[in-house]
Amino acid sequence: MVTLAGGQGTRLGYKGPKGTFELDLYPKKSLFEIICDNLKELNQNLQTTIPWYIMTSIYNDTATKLFFERKNYFDYPKEAIFFFSQSELPIIDIYGNLVLEETFRIKEASNGNGDVFSALARAGYIHQMKQQGIQWLFFAGIDNVLLNCVDPLLLGLTIVNGHLTASKTLRKENPQDKDWIFASKSGKPSIIDCTYLTEDMKIEIDPITKHDCFRDINLLSHLFSINAVEELANDVLPYHRAFKKNTFVNEEGMKQVPEQPNTFKFENFIFDAFSFFPSIQLLRVKKEEEFAPIKDFNGPHNPEVATILYEKVKLHKKHIDDDEKD
Question: How many domains does the chain have?
């Protein structure tokens, strides 16, 4: 299991690694602990210990490791948890100039979750995995509290159908929504901007499968074979540009806090890795069962909504377990 946890809780107004953000449960649980609970349950059911790899960034690596130490690794085997850090790239202003973090220091930003393959290789973990006989890796973000982090169904479908990569998807309910969707681009699996679709394509149905052709959206829950991961560590994923607001040090050496976006950062995205392979296994899941991300306090994906959905799913699962015992 690989958890992408390089972000800070800035959009939540939270100071610290996003994975340390706690839901208002009783007792309170951090996003890291929620994932750990799922892994421990899987370990018990499968009679094994799943290695847990956590990608941090230069901004939260130390704080993340200290958090795990304070929490006694949530009683997960310490020797089965591996931390590694993604890289950074300089950011530039609207004129293409480098920006200063402080005098004589260039401002940098993490280069996106697509760096995970190279970061695993730099840390020596791909070699370690192959030595341990690990054949498949699940990748997911830190903020989805309903994440089914290691899914035997997805793994089985992927192996049986002969794919090297797989992803879970959600059905886009409104075809006019701006969510990017899975599609074939130049004969390769890709995630594309839906604005390139015609109105007919947005609602197109496959005549054979009766399945929507262009309604599968990404929920950041992916599967890659170890051979695919090793190949991707040596490939170059494309960079995407994001216009962001960043403080900087001006020519007089004074720190300035802009009111509007003023810089560009460059990021790799993990989903661009799919286009390096001829095919992909997609598994559409139910939103109410597997998708409750925490993005910010004001939007639809806020902590309160995520907590309600988390408790609802846990209560439903408890009822099922109680019925099976009876």
Answer: 1
